[in-house]
Amino acid sequence: VFPGNCWAFKGHQGQVVIRLPARVHLTAITVQHITKDASPSGTIISAPKDIAVFVSLLGTFVDADREEEILLGTFTYNMEKDPIQTFPLKNMLLPRAFSHVKLLVKSNWGNPWYTCIYRVQVHGKMENWKASTEGQD
């Protein structure tokens, strides 16, 4: 994670859809940004602030007219805390695995020109792995 080596989007709002390598029973998401010490300006106002995480009941996020999205959580990335922050997702209502996750950034910490995301990690159990280990401790 180096300054400027990020996924940047114009403005303070944006979204990204992540295609997972397998269908996953989602449990948490981790967002990472650089530290103030690593930033050439000494600030990290380009860090995301308010974030929402969605899954699609249709499997992908391709057709916006037919899309049925489920909100798995909203959270705030706190730039005063650790640069790597993990947030639990509310998946108890969805006992199934998903192949795509949408991360919607609603705001950043004050940069009017762009928002940067350095790393996103999706946590959970792969569908086949969970089925093959049921009944085991």
From TrEMBL:
Pfam families: Sad1_UNC. SUPFAM superfamilies: Galactose-binding domain-like (SSF49785). The keyword Membrane applies. Residues 1-127 form the SUN domain. GO terms for cellular component: meiotic nuclear membrane microtubule tethering complex; nuclear inner membrane. The keyword Transmembrane applies. It comes from the Eukaryota. Its main location: nucleus. It is found in: Nucleus inner membrane. Signal peptide: none annotated. Keywords: Membrane, Transmembrane, Transmembrane helix. One of its GO terms (molecular function) is protein-membrane adaptor activity. PANTHER family: SAD1/UNC-84-LIKE PROTEIN-RELATED, SUN DOMAIN-CONTAINING PROTEIN 3. This is SPAG4 protein. It comes from Edolisoma coerulescens.
